[in-house]
UniProtKB/TrEMBL annotation:
The lineage of its organism: Bacteria, Pseudomonadati, Pseudomonadota, Alphaproteobacteria, Sphingomonadales. It comes from the Bacteria. Coiled coil: none annotated. This is ComF family protein. Pfam families: DZR_2, Pribosyltran. Belongs to the ComF/GntX family. Residues 10-44 form the Double zinc ribbon domain. Residues 152-208 form the Phosphoribosyltransferase domain. InterPro entries: ComF/GntX_DNA_util-trans (IPR051910), DZR_2 (IPR044005), PRTase-like (IPR029057), PRTase_dom (IPR000836).
Length: 212
């Protein structure tokens, strides 16, 4: 029994577990209530991308609470949902998060993708390489840009960390992100991993925009 498991009853007594979306009482600290769970949509893998859920209103609320609301305790919940959709892995894999620029990391205090990658590493047995990719320049939000403009903004922004080149060469890589939107950032990360000699890259995210 782990320390966390041993302390779980005490934690539940002091802080009764509640659904992070609606606040309803639930059985454990790491889950959703039945009602909120039923509102999520669980898509099949598509185009090499594994998404735990489609990006609908409940998924957005979870992501915003985790990403911008400081609810880092949601990382195990989201990662378990991602691992369930990912399934068992064959062979040796690395988990690599989509990187944040150091200024964005300083402002937010954490890289939400790195937190998910750490949890996934524990769940899947893959090895976490949190700094395998680096964001060499700060980029603005891509939300209102077209595909060509997004590619231009990201040109040269993401690269493999030279100190991790030996680990990436020939490796199977799980590229971890919280939300996949336009896929411009994902493509830039994959290009950097390919340039570093990664043998295979699979993308796994919590939510994917554009899925029903």
């Amino acid at each position: 029994m782990t320390v966390a498991q041993a302390l779980a009853p005490l934690v539940d007594l002091i802080w009764p577990p509640r659904c992070p979306l609606c606040g309803e009482g639930i059985g454990t600290q790491t889950g959703l209530c039945t009602g909120c769970w039923s509102k999520l949509t669980f898509p099949e893998a598509e185009g090499g991308v594994v998404a735990a859920v489609a990006y609908n209103d409940p998924a957005r609320d979870l992501v915003l609470a985790f990403k911008r609301g400081g609810r880092i305790s949601l990382a195990p919940v989201l990662a378990r949902m991602m691992a369930a959709r990912l399934g068992p892995l064959e062979g040796v894999w690395l988990t690599v998060p989509v990187p944040l620029h150091r200024w964005r990391l300083w402002q937010r205090g954490y890289n939400q993708s790195a937190l998910l990658a750490r949890e996934l590493a524990g769940l899947t047995g893959a090895r976490l390489v949190v700094d395998a990719l680096v964001r060499r320049k700060h980029t603005p939000s891509l939300g209102r840009l077209g595909s060509a403009a997004r590619a231009h903004v990201l040109e040269g922004a993401i690269a493999a960390n030279p100190s991790r080149s030996a680990q990436l060469a020939g490796a199977n890589v799980l590229l971890v992100d919280d939300v996949l939107t336009s896929s411009a950032t994902t493509r830039a990360c994959i290009a950097a991993l390919d340039a570093a000699g990664a043998a295979r890259v699979r993308v796994v995210c919590f939510a994917r925009v554009g899925l029903d």
